[in-house]
Amino acid sequence: MIYKLIIEFTLDKKQKIDYNIGSVLQGIMMTFLDRDYGDELHKQSLRPYSQYFESESGKYYWIINTLTEEAKEKIIDKILISNRRSLDLIYRKSKLNIEKFDLIKGIITKDYERKDVIVNFKTPTSFKKTSGGYEIFPSVKHIFNSLINKYEQFGDGFNEITNNKNSLLENIIKNVEITGYELKTEKFGVKGSYIPGFIGKINFKIKGNKEFTNTILKLLQFGEYSGVGLKSTMGMGAISIL
Hints:
Number of strands: 11
Order of helices and strands: EHHEEHEEEEEHHHEEHE
Number of helices: 7
Largest sheet: 5 strands, antiparallel
Strand order of the largest sheet: 2-3-1-5-4
Helix content: 25-40%
């Protein structure tokens, strides 16, 4: 079962923060976890959560998504039972003052047929090149390969989608087209260095029957919780379907 924890907070000093605080928030999140579980997460190449920062209408939010029941119990539940009312930003000698918590069950809608979909990439998104370096321009292949891998690891009913993920990706490359975009390059700060990526909106057009369309939309809906691409546990690759 997927869960989303939305933590609304205020700042105790006048300061500017943006999605680059995501890597700091991941560090704060780890302080809530049992050491054994934290060590277990560090060993995993794909991890059962994503988290990121966003602001809207002058309000600040820390979003934590867990993709398994175990992750919900060992991450979200630990944060909720701690009853903490503030989070220390030691590097800025300031605090994030928690206003409220909202816990929401994630829902993947069935029979959600749309042929034209706009996806908003809310935080910088990037992919690793096999030759080294980063792929900073989106492609159907990179986006859906990431979503397939994450859904295979943590999603419900992967075998209902396909019995061969390579053939699924080939089918997606043939039948899903980027028809428009409103993007810009953005860098994401991680421990004093920066990862290049993109941010903004992409228009997708889906060809194929209802079953295929539902598969694409299921993957994109899952991506709203798993994130897309690199470092979604640190605040990159957050998306929403518009």
